[in-house]
Amino acid sequence: MDCSLCNPSSIPKPTEGVSGTIKVPMNTTPPTIAVIAGSTREGRFSDQAAAWVAAELVKHGATAEVIDLRDYDMPFFNESVSPAMLTTPYTHEAVVRFTAKIKSADAFVMVAPEYNHSTTAVLKNALDWVYREWNQKPVAFVSYGSVSGSRAVEHLRLIAVELQMAPIRNAVHISGDKYFGMRGGSMTAAELFASLQKPVDGMIEQLLWWTHALKAARG
Ligand SMILES: Cc1cc2nc3c(=O)[nH]c(=O)nc-3n(C[C@H](O)[C@H](O)[C@H](O)COP(=O)(O)O)c2cc1C
Predict the structure, then answer these.
(1) Rounded to the nearest whole angstrom, what is the distance from the C-alpha of residue 193 to the centroid of ligand 1?
(2) Mean pLDDT over all residues of the chain?
(3) Is the pLDDT of residue 15 over 90?
(4) Is the pLDDT reported for residue 42 higher than 60?
(5) In angstroms, what is the span from residue 83 Cα to ligand 1's centroid?
(6) What is the CA angle 96-84-64, rounded to 5?
(7) What's the sign of the alpha-carbon dihedral 92, 211, 154, 51?
(8) Pocket test residue of 70, 114, 150, 180 for ligand 1, highest count of atoms within 8 A of CB
(9) Would you say the pTM of this structure is higher than 0.70?
(10) Measuring from atom 29 of ligand 1, which residue has the nearest CA?
(11) Long-range pairs for 150-154: beta carbons < 8 A, 24 or more residues apart
(12) Residue 27's pLDDT is what?
């Protein structure tokens, strides 16, 4: 079977294929990338995955910070004006802090558990509270679940576009076999993460390209 695209190494990098002449001025300041742990329940896995991705980002030269939604006790969105139309900033203390945190980041990795074939309510609510501060920034995804959390990520990609973000192609999708096996004791979380080195490197490589490109474009 001819399957040139089955081999990840044959997939063009963002700098290839579209135009060999595209040159992005690379900002020398390390970009700040926020990793959002997408669940808050007792016994969650998203905090472990977020800490791992943050450490991998640092290895690639980025400044990384984990955003734990447990630290931002935001109500379900209940304002009369949507954040896209906002002229007077919201005043809820946790929303103000969360918005400032999003503003300070150049890019995001969303750790996306799959709840009922979609993203978690707590992550969607956090996305809904902010608008301009998400705009024109790239986002990558790490997911897990029976079909690798891919349904949650596909929904998040659509949401990200409406938030004027740039969802990047490469993601880390942890298969159900591996993920639920690890939860059942077949391997440790460290062993699971070690098995994901290639996809996480590929994801970070793409994310950094877009981070530098969009940071330069935002000025
Ligand atoms: C409310 C709820 C709904 C879930 N729905 C799905 C689902 O649709 N697909 C799936 O693969 N796993 C589903 N799961 C299992 C999750 O993949 C698993 O519990 C995972 O650990 C959740 O991420 P977390 O530990 O970070 O919360 C669901 C779990 C919960 C709590």
Answers:
(1) 19
(2) 91
(3) no
(4) yes
(5) 29
(6) 50
(7) negative
(8) 114
(9) yes
(10) 115
(11) 150/114, 151/114, 151/117, 151/118, 152/112, 152/113, 152/114, 152/115, 152/117, 152/118, 152/119, 152/120, 153/112
(12) 53
Instruction: Output the CATH code of domain 29-73+94-218.
Output: 3.40.50.360
Atom of ligand 1 at shortest range from CA of 117: 8
Residue 28 predicted with pLDDT over 90: no
What residues have CB less than 8 Å from 217, skipping those under 6 apart?
A: 136
Atom of ligand 1 nearest to the CA of 41: 27
For the stretch 130-165, pLDDT in tens is: 999 999 999 999 999 999 999 999 999 999 999 999
Helices (H), 6-92: 46-59
Among protein residues, the one with the nearest Cα to ligand 1's atom 31 is 115
